[in-house]
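Q: Predict the assembly, please.
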Amino acid sequence: MAFQLDSRENPKVKHFVKLLSSGKYRQEQGLFAIEGARLCMDALQSGIPIAELFYTQEAVKKYSAIITALEQKASKSYQISDGIAKKMGDTAHPQGVFCTCKMLDKPDDLVTIGTDSRILAMENIQDPANLGAMLRTAEAVGIGRAICSAGCCDIYHPKVLRASMGAVFRLPVRREENLPETLEKLTQMGILTMAAVPDASAKPVTSLHFDTGAVAVIGNEGNGLTKETIEACKVQVTIPMKGRAESLNASMAACILMWEMLR
Amino acid sequence: MAFQLDSRENPKVKHFVKLLSSGKYRQEQGLFAIEGARLCMDALQSGIPIAELFYTQEAVKKYSAIITALEQKASKSYQISDGIAKKMGDTAHPQGVFCTCKMLDKPDDLVTIGTDSRILAMENIQDPANLGAMLRTAEAVGIGRAICSAGCCDIYHPKVLRASMGAVFRLPVRREENLPETLEKLTQMGILTMAAVPDASAKPVTSLHFDTGAVAVIGNEGNGLTKETIEACKVQVTIPMKGRAESLNASMAACILMWEMLR
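A: Predicted assembly structure:
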């Protein structure tokens, strides 16, 4: 049985909105917030623990099977008014289904990473839509795991979750305080560490053979990779360019490198 | 010598802002508006006729060479205050350099398209950032021309221009009222027309040989290609998928198909 929430000032509502808007609050609480029938169901099917479920009467009509499934797993359920749904909605037309979820701890030790793994590493990616799109693409082409430097935006940012189409729930993602050190360890394990640079003197990705594990390291949208990260990698890799555009944008470059690693 | 504009209500300023915001006004005037030193210089170097140039005193200090070059080609130049620059700016931190430009007519007849061409066609792409990113990627990997269906967003939308990094100025882009008819003509010319579909029964792109010209046709972000457009193409092509994600997003799918066409 769902409780009824009627006030926009209810602490549960404020809690949800703060989880959407503040990365710091998400970290403190160990929780994140999601919106939309599809994304909530994705979380459930991926084994993400659902803490609270919120839904409107209208949503029950449209998404009854999904809400029933979510309600069985959610620790608490609340029925909310359309007004509250609007306040909780991060999108223009909220579907009236919202969850708070527990962050998954994915403390896989580096040594547990198979030496035949295909990995995407991202350094200081700032735009949540870019980060989400890269994770979505990584999952689609068959990348096994992702690594984010500490300077990347939060993977639980609502725009990352949305752009990733739930890939955040399924792909193991590590956050690394010291990315160069991690890359050096991966190199020692026999994994080919590749710094993506828009530089004609780097190795064309089409000339590489991926018979061992490999990690493609993608840098910030405007500034590329840091010097330390480039130096920590075994090779510098580039995408042979034909047009006058200086380089591909970060997510397109990531897309081509991941595709080549798994082609 | 630049005229001095001091009022935000000046008709020149209003004209510029309307060119930024209204696709209909752009069509009526045969003009579009751009912002930023880099993009204005890209337009100039690509042979786009510059109608009006606007710049702040601050911008003259930072971008003197660019402004001098632009001023030599612009029909009219205006020096503007910082307040006017803020009103004209579409971005958070305008650089204080703005141009209005004449739309290029690119009326290349279909029969002039080489039968070895590599082409990107887009149907009903709605998001200007997606359209711009696809054009940028197309130019970078070496696609020779692009086709937009009438349902695509305007290529002179400021977000398309920005995301394309000037590729709009350099890549011949045709707008087609009847995309299926155009594709049928291209097929008759011996060009391999490929409808991109997220469908396991379609041909994997990795199984195709691109020894003739080819066109990759990408559909709307949410709905994919229309039935008419799929039927007008010679083959249905797909990207072999490994993860649980239903499909790549439109611009990532376009990226991989274009890359494979030119690999």
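Residues 128-141 of chain A form the longest helix (14 residues). The CA atoms of residues 146 and 173 of chain A lie 5 Å apart.
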